[in-house]
Design goal:
2 helices, globular
Amino acid sequence: MNKYELMYILVNSVSDEEKDAMIEKINALITKNGGVVESVDKIGSKKLAYEINKKHDGYYDLVNFTAESSVPATITNTLRITENVLRYIVVAK
C-alpha cells in the first residue's frame, strides 16, 4: 500500500454540517476502497490565491491516507463531479 496526501477546497458558503458531511463522505470513500485514513487536518477558511468560479475564499482540508494505487483515481473521479468542491489534488508521498 502506498501513502497519499489529498488536499481539497470546498465552497466556503456551505454550512458546517455540510462541510462535515463532505469530510465523512471522502473518508468513507477511502475506507470503502480498502484504504486507511491516517489523519485529517481541517485547515479552515482561507483566501484563495486567485478567483475560482467567482469565489474569493474557500475551506481547505488535508487528508493523509494509505491505499492501493487505484484508489486515487476513484477519489479524483468522485471529487470531479462533486458540486461544492472548488479544487482538489492527490499526491503520492
